[in-house]
Design a protein that fits this description.
The structure is a single chain. The protein is α/β, with parallel strands linked by helices and 252 residues long. Helix content is 22%, strand content 25%. It has one domain (2-251): 4-Layer Sandwich (Metallo-beta-lactamase, Chain A). It has helices at residues 40-44, 56-59, 61-71, 84-94, 188-194, 199-206, 226-234; strands spanning 2-7, 20-23, 27-29, 48-50, 78-82, 114-118, 125-127, 130-136, 144-149, 154-157, 176-180, 215-219, 241-243, 249-251. A hairpin with a 3-residue loop joins β2 (20-23) and β3 (27-29). The protein binds zinc ion (2 copies).
Length: 252
C-alpha cells in the first residue's frame, strides 16, 4: 500500500496544505488538497474520495476537482463517500448552486461529474479491491475515521477527533495509523473545546489500543506550532511515531 501525503496540516499556510491522503494513487482520504499538488493525469486516477467530516479543510478541493474534470469533458465520475450527515452538508451547503454548481447534475444527472455514496458507520464495504469501514469519532460535527484494508495491509485514519473510544478497537496491530494532533500541549483547553488532540492527550488515546500500530503518523498540526508539536511528539518516546510533512510518500 502506497501512502502519499498530499496535505497534512490543520490549516492553510505557506508550505502547508490541508489534509488529503492518497492510497495507491487512486483512493483519497479527505479532500483538503488535490489540484494544487497533483498533475491532471494523477487527478483523473482518483475515482473514490472518502470524507471524514464536513469541515471546510477536509472538503475544499472537491469543487475544484469537479471544475478541472468538466474543463476537459472527460465523461468522468468521481464518487464521494461519506456518512449521511456529510453528504447532506455537501449537497445543501457546497454543491447547492450558490456556493458552487451542483456537479451531481453536470454535464447530466445520468452521467455526472460527482456521485454521492452514503456510508453506514461500522459496515464494511468493498471499493476497488479494498475494504473500507467508517468508525465514528468525537468532533464538533458528526465525524468518522476510516479503516482501509488492501490484500495484506491495513491503515486507519482518524480524521479530526478529540478524546474518543470506538476507533481504537480497530487499530490494534495495524500497519499504519494516521492520527491527529492539532495543538501544542499548552493549548489543551482549546483542543478540548474544539475536539482535537495535543501530544499529551494522544498518549491517553494510544493507551486504549491493545497492540500499538507498527507506524503512527501524526497529522493536522497547526503550522504555527509545527516545530513545538514535533518536539512534543518526539518526547513521547514511542517507536514508529512521526509528524507528517506534506509531499512525503510511504510504502506501508
Ligand atoms: Zn474538523
Ligand atoms: Zn480539520
Amino acid at each position: 500500500m502506497r501512502l502519499q501525503i498530499l496535505g497534512s496540516a490543520g490549516a492553510e499556510y505557506p508550505g502547508f496544505h490541508p489534509p488529503s491522503f492518497l492510497i495507491d494513487g487512486q483512493l483519497l482520504l479527505d479532500a483538503g488538497t488535490i489540484g494544487s499538488v497533483l498533475s491532471e493525469e494523477e487527478q483523473w486516477k482518483i475515482r473514490d474520495i472518502f470524507i471524514t467530516h464536513s469541515h471546510l479543510d477536509h472538503i475544499r478541493s472537491v469543487p475544484a476537482l469537479a471544475d478541472n474534470i468538466i474543463m476537459k469533458n472527460l465523461k468522468h465520475t468521481v464518487t464521494v463517500h461519506g456518512t449521511a450527515d456529510v453528504i447532506s452538508a455537501l449537497r445543501d451547503h457546497m454543491f447547492n448552486g450558490v456556493i458552487w454548481p451542483d456537479f451531481t447534475k453536470i454535464p447530466s444527472a445520468k452521467d455526472p461529474v460527482i456521485l454521492y455514496s452514503i456510508i453506514e458507520p461500522y459496515l464494511e464495504f468493498a471499493v476497488k479491491g479494498y475494504t473500507v469501514q467508517a468508525i465514528p469519532v468525537n468532533h464538533t460535527v458528526p465525524a468518522v475515521g476510516y479503516r482501509v484494508n488492501s490484500a495484506c495491509r491495513t491503515l486507519v485514519y482518524t480524521g479530526d477527533t478529540g478524546p474518543t473510544e470506538d476507533i481504537w478497537n480497530y487499530c490494534s496491530g495495524v500497519d499504519a495509523l494516521i492520527v491527529e494532533v492539532s495543538f501544542p500541549n499548552n493549548m489543551e483547553s482549546l483542543a478540548q473545546v474544539t475536539r482535537h488532540l495535543t501530544s499529551s492527550m494522544l498518549i491517553d488515546e494510544l493507551s486504549k489500543i491493545a497492540e500499538l500500530p507498527k507506524r503512527i503518523f501524526v497529522t493536522h498540526p497547526k503550522p504555527q506550532y509545527y516545530d513545538i508539536i514535533r518536539r512534543e511528539i518526539e518526547c513521547l518516546g514511542i517507536d514508529g511515531i512521526e509528524l507528517l510533512h506534506d509531499g512525503s510518500v510511504y510504502d506501508i
